[in-house]
């Protein structure tokens, strides 16, 4: 048979193995050579988190002061919503907080007034720029400013995601895409809250989600090929000249839930949602120990107050 008619193949045993020390771009947060999304509602710190990861990869410093970067390298950034002066100010604040100098970083900012991922010319220019810089990470913030398509239409969003996947595979570059979640979607699974087609959630190898619950900023992670770390509570360090995200203890001053007994906390949370919640999400929102939460839910199910289904728990 003519070899030109066949697709290239190789025996499974001959496929390249991933080295353990190359499993992560940012340990626990972002897989090596991963495409993914930093998502959340407006004003939840998505851009700050994206810049934090960009600085960590370029500098080799731990992201959020905690998550190691085994192999740092050049970063290419396009911030479509912020002027260049603001971008510099934010980067300077983060680098001061992490104890590094912006002048020393191999971090490159695209200064073009617009980049359109639905335009072939811009796609070629972006890919060539990433290749010329040997970028380890490409950060695009946010998706909504990078196209003029219908994000809800699979036929329109899929080619853009396929293009970014091709960059990852051809250049071995991780791709971080900042994207908005739907408003008032705090009670659904984080990935399902992303605005637009479900293709966006499915596309990500590593996805990070930020959401607010009262005064708390909660960071959740999910990975296609690795276990996710526990959710983290974050806050913005207000130190002058060093504005950056930092890990903090869970807040303990929420009067709507923390001053109530477990049953009242659970009812309060379930009353505010129109879909079932998993045990994990209930634990996060109620801030109750897993053993106490499970025992209380069993009692409430027996008493007919709460129903349980494959999708989670809901008020009867």
Describe the structure.
With 316 residues, the protein is α/β, with parallel strands linked by helices. Helix content is 31%, strand content 21%. The strands form three sheets. It has a nine-stranded mixed sheet, sandwiched between helices. The chain has a two-stranded antiparallel sheet with strand order 1-2. α1 (46-59) crosses α2. The longest helix has 18 residues, at 154-171. Mean pLDDT is 89; it is low at 253-259.
Total number of helices? 8
Under CATH at level 1, the class of the largest domain stands as Alpha Beta
Q: How many runs of DSSP E, i.e. beta strands?
A: 13
How much beta, percentage-wise? 15-25%
Strand arrangement in the largest pleated sheet:
5-4-6-7-3-8-9-10-11
H/E element order: EEEHEHEHEHEHEEEEHHHEE
CATH-defined superfamily of the largest domain? P-loop containing nucleotide triphosphate hydrolases
Per the CATH scheme, the topology name of the largest domain is Rossmann fold
Pick out the low-confidence regions: 253-259
Structural class given helices, strands, pairing?
A: alpha/beta
Distance between the termini: 64 Å
Percent helix? 25-40%
Q: Write down the domain tally.
A: 2
Oligomeric composition of the shown chains: single chain
CATH 2nd-level architecture of the largest domain: 3-Layer(aba) Sandwich
Largest sheet: 9 strands, mixed
Shape descriptor reads: globular
Rg calc = 22 Å
